[in-house]
Amino acid sequence: MTAPPPPHGPDPRDGQIYDMPPDLGLAIEVALATHRPLLLSGEPGSGKSSLAPHYARTHGMRYYEHVVTSRTRATDLLWTFDSVRRLADAQAHRPHLQDAEYVRPGVLWWSLAPESARTRGGLFRAAAAHDPMDRFAHERQAKNAVVLIDEIDKADPDVPNSLLVPLGSQEFTVAETETTVCREPSVGAHLVVITTNDERELPQAFLRRCVTFTLPAPTVESLLRIARMHLRHDGQEWDTETEQLAGALAVELMSAREGSDARRDRLPSTAEYLDALRACLALDVRPGGPKWELIRTLTLTKSPQKQG
């Protein structure tokens, strides 16, 4: 029952495996029909960040992602300008400087107007011929695109509001070159998925312009489905013994999540459940065995270790 190592790493985000909750498919269809972003909320580990690459893969779409931090500005999703390199080249008296050369298109520019992004709005023809932001460019159609803006609530509150116009009109102007970027006619379906962990309240104006969906918390049944999908993808046999082990770990995870000392920001997630399952399979650990409680502590509850 020894498990082989996962061929894609523990957190691949390649879109190959996803357990689609009921009604989420309809939420995606509504977002596409209304040309509104899909705002996903839910507990950490509920699968918010995995939806976008899965939808892109299963529908043959270009895929882009931007993970938001506390230093993210709204323009970072549209473009960035390398003013430091521009100044250095000017001080070195480099001839024929073009501001467009120092513009780097962001994920929304590439997704909405890939031809414009390649040439920086037609001002810089020396740009790369391929799409450097598309994580799966070699296997995607050029027409449709999915963009993941991950953890928007980590940004300054001004960031969501600053995205209202470019997301709503699908148009923006690059300040340094005064180039207007518009959605190109060749671009078909365009899905923007935005995730939030609800660490900070989002502006009401932003919420009104999104299609919102809250992912459900894991259950024993959903954990078993996900475990079966992942192990079969890893080449691991799903036999009765493996199913019983996965079920026992699912019960342990639910118990840890429902404990009186459980904190919302430290609820064990599906990823930690899969870690526990793979560890038990690789180390031949059984429920109730001498290493069972330690595996539970290391992967699920992550309680401080007591020194003997």
Note down, in words, how this protein is organized:
- This protein is of the alpha/beta class.
- 37% of the residues lie in helices and 13% in strands.
- The protein is built from 12 helices and 9 strands.
- The strands form 3 sheets. A 5-stranded parallel β-sheet has the order 2-5-8-1-9. Strands 3-4 form a two-stranded antiparallel sheet. Strands 6-7 form a two-stranded antiparallel ribbon.
- Helix 9 crosses helix 10 (240-258), helix 9 crosses helix 11 (270-283) and helix 11 runs antiparallel to helix 12 (292-301).
- It is elongated.
Question: What structural keywords apply?
Answer:
single chain, 308 residues, alpha/beta, five-stranded parallel β-sheet, two-stranded antiparallel ribbon
Q: Helix and strand layout, with pairings?
A:
Blueprint: H1 24-34, E1 38-41, H2 48-58, E2 62-67, E3 79-81, H3 83-91, E4 103-105, H4 107-112, H5 114-118, E5 145-150, H6 158-162, H7 164-169, E6 171-174, E7 179-182, E8 190-195, H8 204-208, E9 211-214, H9 220-233, H10 240-258, H11 270-283, H12 292-301
Parallel strand pairs: 1-8, 1-9, 2-5, 5-8
Antiparallel strand pairs: 3-4, 6-7
Helix pairs in contact: 9-10, 9-11, 10-11, 11-12
Task: Summarize it.
The protein has 308 residues and is α/β, with parallel strands linked by helices.
Fraction in beta strands: 5-15%
Separate helix tally? 12
Question: Based on the structure, what is the oligomeric state of the protein chains?
Answer: single chain
Mean pLDDT score:
86
Query: Whole-Å distance between the termini?
Result: 32 Å
Order of helices and strands: HEHEEHEHHEHHEEEHEHHHH
Q: What global shape is seen?
A: elongated
Strand order of the largest sheet: 2-5-8-1-9
Low-confidence stretches: none
Task: Indicate the structural class.
Answer: alpha/beta
Number of strands: 9
Note the main sheet: 5 strands, parallel
CA-atom Rg in angstroms:
23 Å
**Percentage of residues assigned to helices:** 25-40%
